[in-house]
Amino acid sequence: MMTNFQPALIRAFFSAYAEGVLATNADAQNEAVALTPARVKQLMLNHYEEISKHFFDILFNPLALIHYDSAEELIAILRSPEVAPTLKTPVDLFRHVCRTEQNHEDMVAEYRRNFTSLLSGRVLSLNDYYAGFPEGYLQTAEGNQALAVRILTQTVVNAFFAGRRDALAQKSSDDAVQPGGANQIYIFRLLIENMQCMLHPKPITFDDEADLNEMFLAVCHNQENMNTMLTTMQETLQTTMEQ
To answer: Are 23 and 177 in contact (CB under 8 A)?
Structure first.
């Protein structure tokens, strides 16, 4: 497993969930309300308990995919006589889905780093994300990039709509605003940011005149990965809308 994969998925979850909450609250205002750090902090505190549940629901399968060769391998471990009796909480399951103690410790550290940033009033920036790792720790993606692109795209879409649903649940039907076309605009930006974290060892600098297609191609490395990202996005959006 590339060192980028797990921390990139965690940042993707937090940034997309926060975007879903913040965008929905902004859409529902009758007049412009600045998303100051204090406002962002309060909005995220409103969903403090929901975040951990969504983290488990959305990231369990992606983490399993990057740490195990097959679902059967993980299932066999979870059902084994030694492990099964110890599985009392989602925390216990995460210890095994991360496969090693080091991976689990790294997951907990990234969870706290992203959560702490939200509770200070901002999504963890790309510069801060990259600055959190020692020189040479993050890599340029090799190997099964298609799998990485697919699971990160699914994570972004699922986390964004989890945040949107949670924010809408706190509002009356009169306040609930769901701009259809705007969803993809938010998701495009989230994918451009988080695909960098997954596939690149440092942030990408774009030309001022770069269009969306050029930015997608740059973060995805090649046309095949970009096609995988866009196809997965549409499939996941469709599945989400049907729920």
So the answer is: no
